[in-house]
Amino acid sequence: MISETAQAEVLEFGHGSGNLMRVNDLIALNHRAGLRFGSVLLQILPCLFYLLIASQPNTAAASDLAEEFQLALDTFQKQYGFPGATAAYVLRNGTVGIAATGVSDLESKTPMTVQSRMLSASIGKTFVGATAVALAHEGALNLDIPIARWLGKQRWFTRLPNHDAITLRHLLTHTSGLPDHVHLESFATELSHKWREKDNPFPPEALIRFILDLPSLFEAGKGWAYTDTGYILVGLVIEKATQKSYYTEITERFLIPLGLTLTTPADRRYLPGLAAGYTSTDNAFGLPRKTTTPKGEMVWHPGFEWTGGGLVSNSRDLALWGSALFAGHAMSSPYLNELLNSVPISPDTPDIQYGAGVGIYRTGRFGPVYGHGGWIPGYSSSLRYYPDYGIAIAFQLNTDIGIVDDTTTVIREMEARLAEIAISATHGLNKGR
């Protein structure tokens, strides 16, 4: 079943057909201009045919990579038994590869395809961080002054822990000292009672309500603790500063310019192309095992994630985004220094850091790694970029069973193996250029 439903696609940029087009153009030009250009054409043609031949090893290496990448994805699906997955890579030379395996719906046995979409969860924070950095560069935001400048007039503001000291940088790097509503029992209980509501039961300010009047975890800037609530506040600041919706901002700044056509706001129950997700029946939020109805609508409204994540996407789009963002090509002005301005998440692990919506491993088997993981009930995602090799890799699984509670190592194993395959293959690809 795996071999029948798994799919792979490789797109090569700058090879093959482009060389043929130049040959045809020259032949047509020679025909129109007469025999006086014949000798010039005869001198050029051998060079052009050499380019055609030289591109063949590159194409063969790309094909080998695509096959090995697909085989690895199939093997992981068989070994761990998850319903389905997609995975993609973008290499430094512009090669894009996409693979899919398993099913997007266990009940209907619908195959997972390279076009299948899933909730990308906290990978959406990379868009939040990039937007904040862009606005700071434009002078619309300042990352290092208290957020009271934008939110101080809200009636609830003074009830925020550390409200008088928190800056945007604190929020972006998870150093604000704010609790995380996602892990509060009060949020889990209320979500278990409200997930059936047709509309979003938790707009942004309703999420902030869960942490009001709670003690701070530490003084702002004096520690590190992951908090989705902090990113909800960043979203409110962005909207206040721009007078636009957050989703309009990222659509205009990134999604359209970068051609991320399969990435859209997760702000409604019906999300076209969404694979069904599967979660544990005893999950903390009392949600159903399957995320979708037979008609393809989500059984709960995903909009409450908002700037904590808030997107439905595809592995190809995520890899393209990671490649553009971390290679410095997502904006017209330099921004990487600000995006990667990071803090250690613990004194015990100084090489593991967090920047503006980006996790950073300063050292590792393949050198530094930039990226983010994503979890939401029913879906697990990973985006990683290896700057020493210029390679971005993303994958998505339509389950979180065994992943959210760390009882399986599938995510770590997939990250390591897929990186090994792509990085090892780059030698052959570069050799053919």
Automatic annotation (TrEMBL):
Matches recorded under Pfam families: Beta-lactamase
Native source species: Desulfotalea psychrophila
InterPro entries linked: AmpC-like (IPR050491), Beta-lactam-related (IPR001466), Beta-lactam/transpept-like (IPR012338)
Family annotation (PANTHER family): D-ALANYL-D-ALANINE CARBOXYPEPTIDASE (PTHR46825:SF7), D-ALANYL-D-ALANINE-CARBOXYPEPTIDASE/ENDOPEPTIDASE AMPH (PTHR46825)
Domain Beta-lactamase-related intervals: 73-407
Protein name, per record: Beta-lactamase family protein
Lineage top rank: taxon: Bacteria
SUPFAM superfamilies: beta-lactamase/transpeptidase-like
